[in-house]
Amino acid sequence: MSDALIEIRDVSHTFQTKGGPLKVLDRLDITVSEGGFCAVVGPSGCGKSTLTRLIAGLMIPDAGEVWLHGERVRGPRSTVGMAFQNPVLLEWRTILKNVLLPLEIVPSKLSRKEAEDRARFLLSLVGLEGFEDKKPSELSGGMRQRASLCRALIHQPEVLILDEPFGALDAFTREDLWQTMHQVKEREPFTGVLITHDLRESIFLADQVVVMSGRPAHAQFTLEVGETGPRDLDHLYTAEAAEMLNVLRHQIEIAQGRAPAEATGPDGGERGEDVPAPPPGSAAQGVA
Amino acid sequence: MAYVPAPITRPGDAASGAGRRVLDRLTSRAVVAPIAAVIVFCLVWEALVWANGWPDYVMASPSDLPPAFAQYWELFLVMGWQTLWRTVVGLIVAVIVGVALGMMMGFSRTMRDALYPLLVGFNAIPKATVVPIVALLFVGAHDFNTILIAFMISFFPIAVSVSIGLSTLEPEYRDILRSLGASQTTIFWKIALPKTLPEFFGALKVAVTLAFIGTNLMEIVSPHGRGLGALFDSGKTNSDYPLMFAVLIALAVLGILLYYIVVALEKVFAGWAERTPH
Hints:
The complex is a heterodimer. Chain A is of the alpha/beta class. Chain A has helices at 48-55, 95-100, 112-125, 141-153, 171-187, 199-205, 239-255; strands spanning 4-17, 20-33, 37-41, 63-68, 71-72, 80-84, 159-163, 191-195, 208-212, 219-224, 284-286. Chain A folds into two domains: 4-76 and 159-286, P-loop containing nucleotide triphosphate hydrolases (Rossmann fold), CATH 3.40.50.300; 80-157, no CATH class. Chain A has seven helices and eleven strands. In chain A, strands 6-7-8-3-9-10-11 form a seven-stranded mixed beta sheet, sandwiched between helices. A four-stranded antiparallel beta sheet of chain A has the order 2-1-4-5, covered by helices on one side. The longest helix of chain A is centred in the middle third of the chain and has 17 residues, at 171-187. Chain B is mostly helical. Helix content of chain B is 79%, strand content 0%. Chain B has helices spanning 13-26, 29-52, 65-107, 109-124, 127-137, 142-167, 171-178, 184-221, 227-237, 241-270. In chain B, helix 7 (171-178) crosses helix 8 (184-221). Chain A binds chain B through residues 53, 56-58, 75-78, 80, 82, 84, 86, 88, 90-92, 101-102, 104-106, 127-131, 135, 137, 151, 155, and chain B through 1-2, 4, 170, 172-173, 175-182, 186, 190-191, 194-195, 197, 270, 272-273, 275.
């Protein structure tokens, strides 16, 4: 595939822990095309965060390869932006200075003035105009997360890695930020990888949802959401969305070992009767 | 959508000017309350001595102190300065060594495991027992002795706080910069160091008091010593009890001075950590 921006090829990784070796990833394959948005869901402890660290080059896998834009990842690279569940803003800096932090590390063509203008633009994009000179402690959790998003984008990264960024927010703030994410992606295109526990979030934001199996994890199932770009929150309450959520939930149960693994189709398993057949718009395909 | 606070205007701000502001400050609770407390304390002390009819050699009263200060004011200045500079030098050495040790222990698990029991053991030895040993070891080297004790007594809290501050840094902070290719040194200067400053200043407040105790221990024990400790000792030898009490007061004043210098530095460098209640 020529337009693949992120390619995770046959990646396996084992951690050496006190209790002996712990294999977290087993022959994982994920491909995200340029401009795509891939959500990764799976049971807790299945190695989702390890996956983000591999893409960011913070870790090198034991086996297999990670490729970004046709180059093999062998270490950190400045074309990646990261945001975590914890916004990790530097409390001694203003919001503006926090957003500008990556430009102090990454060589940038922007002058100081241009960089500041860009930071102000990003902040206004996420609804934080007027808060440039505030300290993080003066902001609410949702606002801090918005600022952290701006920081992840300031150096115009090709890849944005979001590791459960909305996990600690209340439901309304979270939905608000989902819409902000779409607005941001329209103005500042990036290729996204989103780690999440929220299935609604995954189908609302992403165009491709990968379900990881239990440890050691491989890509158990891939769901094509069948939509790219901004969508309406109402979309989450359609029959189509309900069906996708059902399929995903069933896959998670398989990953957790609570449903038989051979039942990948909607007609198998204990709760098969309330899962309708996939409509032609969304092609749900089992990988395993 | 965004909340923008309206600018606050105080009526009559421009009219009254700077003089009014100074007056406001001097009559504010922050200034009046501690002064009143000191006055009440002195009155109670005086009354206690007067009511019990204690002679000078049991307990001097506040009214005995001004004559003692007046009689020896030159000595107080000279000795006070000696105590002050040796405490400060000892503290600076403690900061340098403490931060270095703290960095080693904060960044390396091996170093933490290796050094921690040694440091705890070293800290557990009462420094009063080390003072005579040092005094004998480097006899006559007053300045060196005193600085050494001030340092030894005060570096421990600094080392521990810096190491804890560094080792408890959330990994995401590191990852944010490391994923952009930042070096360990950059991460230390941009994140780890500033993030540890509140803990560091907390420890420095403890250390400054300890260093002061260390200096005085040495000054009192060391024969023919210098500083306020030696002045205290000579007061004792000459049964000049008001002088001893006057030294205590001078020590308290110096201690307060040093403490608030640290507080001021904390405000400048780690003021961001202070949360104002909403």
